[in-house]
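Re: the multi-chain job from yesterday

Posting the exact lines I submitted so nobody has to dig through the queue logs.
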Amino acid sequence: MPKVKVDGVEIDVPNGATVLQACELAGKEIPRFCYHERLSIAGNCRMCLVEVKPGPPKPQASCALPASEGQEIRTDSEMVKKAREGVMEFLLINHPLDCPICDQGGECDLQDQSVAYGRGASRYDENKRAVTEKYMGPLIKTTMTRCIHCTRCVRFSEEIAGVDEIGALYRGENMQITTYLEHAAKHEMSANVIDLCPVGALTSRPYAFEARPWELKKTLGIDVSDATGANIRIDARGREVLRVLPRNNDDVNEEWISDKARYMVDGLTKRRLDKPFLRRDGKLVAVSWNEAFAAIATLNPGNSIAAVAGDMVDCETMFAAKKLVGALGSKLIEGRQTGMDYATDSLAAVNFNTTFSGIETADAILIAGSNVRWEAPLLNVRLRKAVKRGAKVFLIGPEWETTFGGEFLGEDLSVLGNLPQNVADVLSNAKRPAVILGGAALGRGGLEAGLALAAQFNLVRDLEDGTKWNGFNVLHMAAARMGGLMLGYAQKGGIADLVAAKPKVLLALGADEVDFTQFAGSMIVYIGHHGDKGAHAADVILPASAYTEKAGTYVNTEGRVQWSDKAVFAPGDAREDWTILRALADAFGVTVGFDTFDQLRNAMIEEVPALGSEGLADYGSVLPLGGGSAAGQIAYPIKDFYMTNPIARASAVMQRCSAELLHGEEIAEAAE
Amino acid sequence: MADRYIEPDTPELRARWGNFAWTAENAEKAKDVVSRYPAGRQRSAVMPLLDLAQRQVGAELNTQGWLPIPVMEYIAAYLDMPVIRVVEVASFYTMYNIAPIGRFHVQVCGTTPCMLRGSDDLLETCKSRGMKKGHISEDGLWSFTEVECMGNCASAPMVQINDDNYEDLTSARLNAVLDALARGETPKAGTQDPARHTVEPVGEPTNLAAMITENHDYRSEW
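And the result, structure tokens for all chains:
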């Protein structure tokens, strides 16, 4: 713990800290462009210059200088002020200063810091350099003349994403940042470079020229595009969500989000269900709410009703539906739309117990049946970190392009029960072994075989430092899954139990992946927000709210309870889901015990107390004994990363990504 | 340097260079180069290998050689590293030609010592012979570029043509060299000043004169 003096105040800094970090600990703001906490140190923008004694009598780049005992650091001296002004003047020499037409305006580091630390005018009157724009794909818009060569994007793609595709060509004044041969950036986290870019060189293409940051209402939300529950900020103007940005949460998403989470929001305004619809003579016709309710009520289903929850619904919606179905005397609720029927007696057995930040410290990881890059891009980033720390990774399933190496052991589930000797050795010798079962490995005895491995390799253990380690993980893909399981959305036989019961009414809560032909005799009431597969099969459509349009509780695959707020109102006649279910209760003439959202939430927390506190729910660490044998070819359920949910399928941006990045279509640039 | 550009990746380029592979001799050399670095650090060999590839291309084209995109991709695959990292290196150093060059690649140094000793005349001479920055002359013989210091300041001004330096140039001496090259001769490399053997002082030494005959301790005279 070196002691340093920052502007005359003595502080202790952790070992290995840099001078910049020491200054931050002392509460001093150090301007910077190239330095970023989550990237390696480059030290090439020179904006963080401070005066350090002992040392050469000149300003030093604080980001790359280790703090050591007895340093006297000044951030407020005349030398530092002049140095910052000088660096800023140099940076602005070739910067176009086109802030009025730049999308970064208002949230630009260069803008802010030139106001705070610049000298106000330039002495440079030569021609500025100009750089041609580079094509980086459908998501990233480039204006490379604005680039100040901080290389954050280069370091991100190399270190975090693990897909080396951005680089700095040429040198000196002619340095240019580009992707290889201007190919589109092809990974699931590519748009994070937009947030990293401290200037307006890399901006968001779908959001180009849409709004200024100060016009936007910012709402804290949770992403539902996968089960990682990334923390997001929803930026809306009026009734439209214009963009989604990540929030910092070291436990979940650090400060990244996937491209799908970021860019599927334009789908929120397309293919929306904004009126109730009723199927008459085989055709869906728009009706009033009363007509729709009357049509359902006249069927008088009694207890012949079931509910199936979609992948993106919040816990409140599921709870309200559970109460409604329960009030009618039925217990048929299910969330695993595609027919999975793994046992859910112990939630610890279907949870990501190690946690995302924990998996970084694992030293041997066996992944079965999961294309992590597509099923949970944020977890892929963590796995890459684990491998960088020396973890060994083995994978079971068809090969996919990992960003962290790893050894593929085979494509069949039977490998789970018959691991090669070297893999078994690595897992049994590891201090922190972990097994991750993806969706494709849960059925056909996979979960039980995985649990058997947990027992065999003693995945639940006390570590030497006294902390607990639970290395058994299930990686879900649906944002609603863990919440649904906590609320009991699981039948013993899965959705087949619902089919067998032949309910008169089937409530489909945003359920779009169900094979509705199984429910040919039922009246399908679709309560959701997009005209997708579920709505096509529905007999009654009750328009509801998407995740940005309602407050809700979500539980991610780690069992982490998180709350999301309402950013905008649902379009047209659409209502929040719980109000629809409450009104349905009236139509059926039953009581469900809540009239307001607060009452609903309180009732839910009373029934499942874990949903009442933010953070990891405790499922205990006792895993059921597995056993049995698993067999069957593994097939990953996600065929197209950009098209996994109705919002993404409606999104023009996601459609273009899918066509261009996955299916290799040439998309002609519209003349601008 | 401002004229540097990467030769665009066209189907014709792919067709011409897509099958690039080491010759038997160069394959041996490449193996040897890679073996100089610790296992797993094979990408450290990228610079010597780029040079080797450039020379192999040059041997095929009878020039100094250049690096087409498919060749850089070959190197990247050979060293198991991302292509963009190879392109970064190749585009950084001017000794790697990233666009086609002529039979003789004329690099005129324009940095201060050469400029003071008359490199402007040399640039003019080249220009008058039809050379243009970043272009190959129509007969395919000449390509021309202005470079920064080549480290021959003691015999400035200088020009590098392919692997040889020609120093102590004047407009006339440069013309003589270029003419000789055009005729297919190999002019003497190094200084073109008949009075000079290498970079020894011209005429009587003016500095450290007391050191000419014997060792002399100047320290007491400072």
